[in-house]
Amino acid sequence: MKKALLLATAMFGMLTFTSPAMAVDGWSKGTLKNIRVSTGRVIIIQNTPSNPGNCDSTTYFILEDTHNLFDQAYATLLTALSMDVKVELGVTGCSTDPTSYPMIDQVWIRPDQS
């Protein structure tokens, strides 16, 4: 029951957070290794990162708290981590830190591809 509830929550978050019309630089696919909450952002570490935007590094992926659907995206990421399922991170642009990291724009949970 708990797993079904988590999956339903994730699917709702995925449906409300993504839009096929929104373009991204590309996708990074894989399971999540860590999630860290920091001032103004959530920092994601993915097990098999890719770098479609050619940022300096893919050690981290950044979800800014100013994203218009931050709460839904964060909830979706937490669900994916707790269920150990693959996610697809749609990234657009790079952060402006001294080392640039991909910026998360879209999140898809892929329980069918665990």
Tell me what the structure shows.
The chain has 114 residues and is an alpha+beta fold. The protein has one domain (2-113): OB fold (Dihydrolipoamide Acetyltransferase, E2P) (Beta Barrel). Helices cover 26% and strands 35% of the residues. It is built from 2 helices and 6 strands; from the N terminus they run H-E-E-E-E-H-E-E. The chain has helices spanning 2-17, 70-83, and strands at residues 26-30, 32-38, 41-46, 61-64, 86-94, 102-110. The strands form 2 sheets. Strands 1-5-6 form a 3-stranded antiparallel beta sheet. Strands 2-3-4 form a 3-stranded antiparallel beta sheet, covered by helices on one side. A hairpin with a 7-residue loop joins strand 5 (86-94) and strand 6 (102-110). The radius of gyration is 13 Å and the shape is globular. The two termini are 19 Å apart.
Give short descriptive properties of this protein.
single chain; 114 residues; alpha+beta; OB fold (Dihydrolipoamide Acetyltransferase, E2P); 3-stranded antiparallel β-sheet; 2 helices; 35% strand; globular
